[in-house]
Amino acid sequence: MLDFPLIPKVLPLGAILFSFLFLLISIPLEAYILNSILKFDKKTSSFYAICMNLFSNVIGWVIFFLIEPFLSIRLRSGLINLIFFNQILPNLINLMILTAFIIFFGTFLVKSLILRVALISLTDFWKQEPESTPQKFYSRRDFKRKLQSKNIFTSVLIANALSYTAVVLVLFLIFRIV
Fold this sequence. Notes:
Blueprint: H1 13-37, H2 42-67, H3 73-85, H4 93-121, H5 135-177
């Protein structure tokens, strides 16, 4: 028989399904924010929201699986209780709050970087700018680019905060119900 050593014996199906649930919550919220603040059309804002969330989710899981072997036994048992039994150990609540802040700002940085890379990679570099445009218009264009850069930063921050708020509300509902 074939033996697959890479497939785990216990699969955290609940954590995987919750990850999909959180993606289904955060993608429409962030697409709405990108649509309303950055004035993208609905299709483009949905594409960028999906791109940001999927890549940041994959990067987050990779970082988690790289860090997990170095955790202490106490933290591992707390993670096992949280993932498999939906129980939070009382002595790990402060650490979970600190970790949540670190994850929030890390995700914000990753999402803003992903959005900037996506915007840069999807722009048309081959478009020639007219030579007869006065220097005054170039300074306005530079000002508009700087303003758009600030808009990208603030819109990703607002979108990330809104989606994290919705996810935390869902988590509170789940932990209160269970």
